[in-house]
Amino acid sequence: MRNNISERFKKLRQSRGLPQAVLARMARTSLTTVSLLERWNIPPRSQSTRQRLAEALGIDSRELFDEQGEVSQS
Questions:
Q1: Quick check: 64 and 54 in contact, CB under 8 A?
Q2: Is 16 exposed, middle or buried, given 0-12, 13-18 or 19+ CB atoms closer than 10 A?
Q3: Cα–Cα–Cα angle for 68, 26, 69, rounded to 5 degrees
Q4: What digits encode the pLDDT tens for the residues 1-11?
């Protein structure tokens, strides 16, 4: 079961003091992309978008997403 995935992403974003819109702008993606990940556990399909989101949060994409593009639970 994928528990607390959206919460983990949201906590990472909030711990860096980034509103969703600011993170989306920093990652050069849409606010919808960030919202879908946080609210519905729907990760971006694009590897480059996943990479940009992780970079905007200041972490390695492997810490945030696993190989299948899902949000990591670790």
A1: yes
A2: middle
A3: 5
A4: 344 678 889 99
How many CB atoms neighbour CB 40 within 10 A? Answer: 10
CA 54 to CA 50: how far, in whole Å? 6
| CA of residue 65 relative to chain centroid, distance | 8
What domains can you pick out in the chain, each with its CATH number? 5-62 (1.10.260.40)
Structure tokens given for 37? 């990940």
Q: What is the pLDDT of residues 21-73, one digit of tens each?
A: 999 999 999 999 999 999 999 989 999 999 999 999 999 888 887 644 455 55
What pTM was estimated for this model as a whole? Answer: 0.82
Q: Which amino acid is at 48?
A: S
Widest Cα–Cα separation across the chain: 31
